[in-house]
Amino acid sequence: MEDDVFSGLAISQQIEGKVVQTFQKSFVQVQNILDQNRVLISEINQNHESKIPDNLSRNVGLIRELNNNIRRVVDLYTDLSNSFAKSMEASSEGETRSDGRGGHKRVRSGN
C-alpha cells in the first residue's frame, strides 16, 4: 500500500514537471510572437501615417503576417489548454489509484 502511494507521488511529480516544461516552452513561444507583433504594429502604423503608396501597399503583407501570428498564438494556447487538461486527468487518475479509494469522491453537504 505504501509503495502505491510513493509510486503515485512519483508519477504525479513527473507529470507536474512535464506540464511546467510545456507551459514554459509555450509561454516563451507566445511572448516571442507577441514581441514580433509589437514590431509589426509599429511598422504598420508608421507606414499608415506616411501615406506613401508603396508603404501602404506593404501594409497588406504586414497585416497578413500579423494575422498569421495571432493564429499561431491561438493555436499555442489551444495546445496548452489541451495539454493541461490531459495532465490533470492523468494526475487525478494517479491519485485515485494510489489512495486506494477507486475513484469514489466524497460529496460535501451544502452547509
TrEMBL record:
Record-annotated Protein EARLY FLOWERING domain positions: 15-95
Domain of life: Eukaryota
GO biological process: entrainment of circadian clock; positive regulation of circadian rhythm; rhythmic process
InterPro entries: EARLY_FLOWERING_4, EARLY_FLOWERING_4_dom
Record organism: Salvia splendens (Scarlet sage)
Major site of localization recorded for this protein: nucleus
Family: Belongs to the EARLY FLOWERING 4 family.
Name of this chain's protein: Protein EARLY FLOWERING 4 domain-containing protein
PANTHER family: PROTEIN ELF4-LIKE 3, PROTEIN ELF4-LIKE 4
Keywords recorded for this protein, A-Z: Biological rhythms, Nucleus
GO cellular-component term (any): nucleus
Pfam families found in the cross-reference section: Elf4
Region of interest called Disordered, as start-end residue ranges on this chain: 85-111
Cell compartments where the protein resides: Nucleus
